[in-house]
């Protein structure tokens, strides 16, 4: 068995607010949208290199297809890493859009510069560039 790719999916408290972060602030482009009664309930997004994520709005009390509850989320078990050209500029742009900065940009010993912001649901997003 060979696995070819992975597609992380995030459960979102407010899908439109999360779309604004990933699409408008980080530059992901909408690739697919599933609606229920005219309202988006799942959206997949891609970056120019093909990296993709899925965002799903999950109402309180709704179990996933797997039967496990998806709310409430206790702790944050997901972290996304996004590469960019300039971490300092990216973090400042995200801060100016109102996204909480968790870690200010810093040089890492593995020759990258990174910082962290939180997405609207509190998931940590690592923003990275070459040092």
UniProtKB/TrEMBL annotation:
Under SUPFAM superfamilies, the record lists: Glyoxalase/Bleomycin resistance protein/Dihydroxybiphenyl dioxygenase (SSF54593)
Q: Which residues form the VOC domain?
A: 4-130
Pfam families according to UniProt: Glyoxalase
- Where are its TM segments located? none
Q: What's the protein called, per UniProt?
A: VOC family protein
Query: What does the record give as the organism's lineage?
Result: Bacteria, Bacillati, Actinomycetota, Actinomycetes, Streptosporangiales
